[in-house]
Amino acid sequence: MPVLPRPRKRLGQHFLIDPNIVRKILKIAALRPEDVVFEIGPGRGALTHALCERVARVIAVEIDGLLVEYLAQTCAQPDALELHHGDALAFPYDTLPAGTVVIANLPYYVSTPLVFRLLEDRDRIDRMVLMLQREVAERMIAAPGSRDYGLLSVVTQYLTKPRKAFVVPASCFRPVPRVDSAVVCLSGRTTRPSGDVRFDEVFMQVVRGAFAHRRKTLINSCREEGWEDPVIRRALEATNIDPRRRAETLTVSEFIALAHAVRVFS
Ligand code: SAM
Q1: Are 101 and 73 in a shared domain?
Q2: pTM score, two decimals?
Q3: CA distance linking residue 21 with residue 260, whole number of Å
Q4: Of 151, 130, 129, 149, nearest to 139 (Cα)?
Q5: Is the CB–ligand 1 distance for residue 17 below 6 Å?
Q6: Domain range for 116
Q7: Is 144 strand, coil or helix?
Q8: Does 115 contact ligand 1 (Cβ within 6 A)?
């Protein structure tokens, strides 16, 4: 039997030990045998083994070489598992087959950049079932005006329909993390104007500009981010958005309208 590598905390290695959570994640993912699954950080295989039993192809990327070796030696369905050794942030997402289902218990230290990376390549992904810190999950689903509402909420809700599925207590992992986790399901695109990549770029610039200086008004935050005053003024006027408002009060639809207007006046 291969030796089980010791957990490395700096790589966010908190392994899932509760089979009930695995079952609940699989239920939410509603996999069909023909689905292709992409897993980030398979670790010791808590999810991977169950996934390989359900679908014919699981593509997994793991940064820890010792765990890659361990998994390759312990996987009961090696034909189903395509294991990559590397950083998921650098993975070539454009090589995933269209309609891929992403399932992952994300490493805490890099979960937000990974979510942004996955959202960027949303076009190849059908749905995602992600386990992350509860606080990050709350930010993804937060409503305008709430404490948690920010860049992550707007981008997630612009590109997907996020739903918090359930909370996972810290006791379900070894080593036990300091915070609870939650599983979120990101499915079906909602308001994204289909295929307009250039619009998405403007949208992202506007949202990043607006949230760059959270305590400032919309207009001052955008100015500080280098937007020309006349452009942002005319865009706010055209969309009937008060320039004294702060970014965290704008709905996703208002951000979309603002980005359209910025594009027109730029
Ligand atoms: N999926 C396993 C489970 O549920 O028990 C492990 C989850 S653990 C929270 C996160 C895993 O992601 C670890 O195996 C860790 O080595 C791996 N990891 C950390 N950073 C990574 C990165 N940048 N790219 C790919 N994998 C990473």
Answers
A1: yes
A2: 0.94
A3: 42
A4: 149
A5: no
A6: 9-187
A7: coil
A8: no
